[in-house]
């Protein structure tokens, strides 16, 4: 039987595990920030969420959109759109036998770019801060995809 | 050459494979429920989807939002936001050499929490049913992330 | 220590790596198409994105939704909803010891169906082109899930 500790003993795989977990925790933080803004701004979308504010019209006024809530939600969706490719392509890249320092470089830049993207979205920073951080994460993922296809291509 | 059956012979990995597949099938079910409500409520978003109802104004009135459709879509997006971290962190956790009973506990609670979340969203149940089921799934993922980082940390 | 090249030497795993990467790159392309339509249609959602068009009312008019932008965004979200299950279930399927030609058939049909789905959404083609391509990708994923559960079931 394979010892599963074999994979997790490999340094590149450990680096992938570390950075993938960090960037997923960052993405999960978006849920908490959304909840924070929904509660402090009193801006909900489900009628059952406003039941504690009373019944009828007094509760209905909290069923509304709020600019801050929508901003966090856009950041969250952008995370999904970009972190899902990183998770899949990054895992395959970690198994493709790159050298450790190159792999670390890819993982670190991607995670740094996504943290910057979130800060640029939520503060918000003037453009092109958000655009550039997005491009950097995108380019890192493309670079890993190129390596995966070069190593593994089997059509 | 590695025998790929090695991984799938490991009990923790098999447990991960089972629960990950079940929770993904549950998420995929949301697409069918959305389609069901779009068709029964006649609430579509793409003009080409209403072509069978005739042309011009008679079809245009079906390009509208419907409360039930939007509710299923919010449940689907919440699934994506929470099941993607489970997939990634759970895979790394399954490779991190936890003991089998602890791993099963994590996987079972997560999948149970997400099924409860969907029921709470669609019925809908009064709060805090949906909130609590969301928190439980979130906490399980954090617990697995902690174990992954403790085992694999390589920055 | 495990040689990570072992997994990537396996033909089924290489096929998975290839098709997963291709379909993720296709999904990432949706971000570029969204950006293209946002810029050419001048339809933005974040105030900081319109700052280069001037200040005040002259910039505010570009904070609007555009039918083409929304269409690409729906295609992108549909990708997420369908490609995430393919990534997870497909990885487990690739590790479940199917035979190579059956695995290739699944991966090729899925990727072909998703490319067709995107074309049907963006051109747009009359229904049922988009609906059918969605069903085909969905059915391939269910077929892989069945094989994973038959091989690995551990509840």
From TrEMBL, chains A, B, C:
Tell me where it resides: Endoplasmic reticulum membrane; Mitochondrion outer membrane
This enzyme's EC code(s):
2.5.1.18
Q: How does it assemble?
A: Homotrimer; The trimer binds only one molecule of glutathione.
Q: What is this protein called?
A: Microsomal glutathione S-transferase 1
Q: What membrane topology term does the record carry?
A: Multi-pass membrane protein
The Swiss-Prot or TrEMBL record describes its family as follows: Belongs to the MAPEG family.
Name the species this protein comes from. Answer: Cairina moschata (Muscovy duck)
Which lineage?
Eukaryota, Metazoa, Chordata, Craniata, Vertebrata
Main location class:
endoplasmic reticulum
A cellular component term from Gene Ontology for this protein is: endoplasmic reticulum membrane
Gene3D superfamilies (alphabetical): Membrane associated eicosanoid/glutathione metabolism-like domain
Q: Which domain of life is it from?
A: Eukaryota
Key words, A-Z: Acetylation, Endoplasmic reticulum, Membrane, Mitochondrion, Mitochondrion outer membrane, Transferase, Transmembrane, Transmembrane helix
Spell out the molecular function terms from Gene Ontology: glutathione transferase activity
Q: What does this protein do?
A: Conjugation of reduced glutathione to a wide number of exogenous and endogenous hydrophobic electrophiles.
Q: Quote the catalytic activity from the record.
A: RX + glutathione = an S-substituted glutathione + a halide anion + H(+)
What PANTHER family does the record point to? MICROSOMAL GLUTATHIONE S-TRANSFERASE 1 (PTHR10689:SF6)
One matching Pfam family, short form?
MAPEG
Top-level EC class: transferase
Which segments cross the bilayer? Answer: 16-37, 83-111
Instruction: Give the InterPro entries listed for this entry.
Output: MAPEG-like_dom_sf (IPR023352), Membr-assoc_MAPEG (IPR001129), MGST1-like (IPR040162)
């Amino acid at each position: 039987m394979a010892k599963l500790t074999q994979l997790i003993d490999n340094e590149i795989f450990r680096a992938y595990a570390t950075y993938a977990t960090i960037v997923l925790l960052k993405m999960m933080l978006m849920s908490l920030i959304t909840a924070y803004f929904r509660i402090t701004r009193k801006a909900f979308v489900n009628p059952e969420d406003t039941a504690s504010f009373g019944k009828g019209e007094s509760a209905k006024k909290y069923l509304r959109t709020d600019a801050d809530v929508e901003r966090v939600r856009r950041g969250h969706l952008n995370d999904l759109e970009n972190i899902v490719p990183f998770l899949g392509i990054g895992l395959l890249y970690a198994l493709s036998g790159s050298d450790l320092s190159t792999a670390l470089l890819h993982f670190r830049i991607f995670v740094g770019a996504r943290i910057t993207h979130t800060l640029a979205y939520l503060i918000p920073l003037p453009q092109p801060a958000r655009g550039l951080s997005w491009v950097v994460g995108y380019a890192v993922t493309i670079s890993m995809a190129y390596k995966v296809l070069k190593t593994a291509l089997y059509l």
